[in-house]
Amino acid sequence: MAKPTSVVDASPAIEAQQAPRKGGGAPGALGWADERLGLGKIGKAGLRKVFPDHWSFLLGEIALYSFIVLLLTGVFLTIWFKPSMAEIHYDGSYQLLKGMPVSEAFASTLNISFDVRGGLLVRQIHHWAALLFVASATVHMLRVFFTGAFRKPREVNWLIGVGLLSMSLMAGFTGYSLPDDLLSGTGLRFVDGLIRSIPIIGTWAEFFVFGGEYPGGLIISRLYMAHILLIPGLLLGLISAHLALVVYHKHTQYPGPGRTENNVVGYPLFPVYMAKAGGFFFIVFGVLVLMGGLFQINPVWTYGPYDPAKVTAGSQPDWYMGWVEGAIRIMPAWESYLLGTTWTWAVFLPGVGLMGLLFTALGVWPFIEAWLTGDKREHHLLDRPRNAPTRTALGVAGITAYGLFFIGGGNDIIATRFYLDLNAITMFLRVAVFVGPVIAYIITKRICLSLQRADRERALHGSESGVIIRTPEGRYYEDHLPLSHDEQFVLTQHLQHKPLVAGGSTDASGVARRGGISKLRARLSRWYLGHEIAKPTAAEIEAAHHHDDDHVAVGSGSTPPRELH
């Protein structure tokens, strides 16, 4: 038998001539992949990327982790759910519905709830995760709005966020409708009314969507296709684009010492944020599991199968669609008959029109604000909401209108629980949805301006010590403590835009621009920017400090600052 050839070690001269490994000597599969894909270079830059640290940035992460939970639990539910409206007789474990004619979708939902091990828990986790996903995405967008994180260069990412929010509403509604129970069927009837109210094409659109006259026989399978394939695919694409732009533009940060428009102060992705993100994911997952196990949601067996001739008493949609239903409930019964067609304004305007107005306003807002301020600079530092009083007031006014519409969606429940007149509630809300946002706008703007004045006084004279001093002349004043350099920076770092002036304008080189500023734009700019409190200049702060020091040195021989009468 032949002996194997002996192995000879490479000489040092030959080893010195070999090219170094790109992986830096990484062994095994990592080195193999790095030599072919260059993962080391990509990973080194990505893993050391710095992210700022603030609790409000976790709102977006909650939405992301909720979406991951939705994908995991959705795969489990997909295995057993049957998206069919074919009628069968129920023969499962729930005795109260035994032998009743139900759709296969409803029967499979009951099967998941009672006969599949862990099915009810997963169903409820999925439903709670959907609600948390929409809620966290909404609050995340509010944070972005109030802090001005949508400004240049992040307008495209804001538009992606608006698309994500609209897709999340569609995902929630399509999933909510799949069990084909009496409550979700009532919601589908509501959407059928919205579709029918579209002028000219409403009836055609209804037959196209439902595959015939409502309820048809195809809507559940179509909603299922949209819910598990189309909408998740769009969400995955938008989330990927959103995260890619966050990495490309770098994360915004709150103002503070050492933080400028050209840097990011925080911690690297590895190992700090990878550990925090991993732990936070399991916290979110754990809370959703606890909610799914302890808090019942959507018990379809108590509603029964859907019957177009029946409506559940006190039926309410999930919270994110309640404001649309409330708008329709309080809308007067306006109709017109034009061109041989009935135009149902009482449904179309508060339903289709209001949702279109909301998402259109959200989409164009970054460009409207840039037009009002004339600001074309890049912004990586966030605003304190008080330093953008008109924007903050408009946001609170919008939230107030949303809340009043939401109350309108439960006007019947409020009337029965508190023994109030349903018509009186409706009439009150018809007025309140117009008056309430105006009052909220005025109050919020006054609060923001008052906070600006307080910040100005604090920057000039320091913080209140709580110590009352009496001078020999009998006067009283409160001593003030000087601010730290860091706090002084936070109070005075923000930019303040001057209102635009009508007429011709020039660029930085003094060359006249074409067009100029119109009177309308100048007037709107004064409304948006004209009432802000001027922040103290460096000279004013220096003068105030000298003034306070003089009073401390002179003592009883002068009038102390901030005298108390």
Automatic annotation (TrEMBL):
Residues 1-27 are annotated as: Disordered. InterPro entries: Cyt_b/b6_N, Cytb/b6-like_sf, Di-haem_cyt_TM. PROSITE patterns: CYTB_NTER (PS51002). One of its GO terms (biological process) is respiratory electron transport chain. Its cofactor is heme. Its EC number is 7.1.1.8. It holds the Pfam family Cytochrom_B_N_2. Keywords: Cell membrane, Electron transport, Heme, Iron, Membrane, Metal-binding, Respiratory chain, Translocase, Transmembrane, Transmembrane helix, Transport. It catalyses: a quinol + 2 Fe(III)-[cytochrome c](out) = a quinone + 2 Fe(II)-[cytochrome c](out) + 2 H(+)(out). GO terms for molecular function: metal ion binding; oxidoreductase activity; quinol-cytochrome-c reductase activity. It is a multi-pass membrane protein. Residues 29-255 form the Cytochrome b/b6 N-terminal region profile domain. GO terms for cellular component: plasma membrane. It is found in: Cell membrane. The chain crosses the membrane at residues 57-81, 125-146, 158-178, 224-248, 269-295, 343-372, 393-410, 422-443. It comes from the Bacteria. This is Cytochrome bc1 complex cytochrome b subunit. It comes from Tessaracoccus flavus.
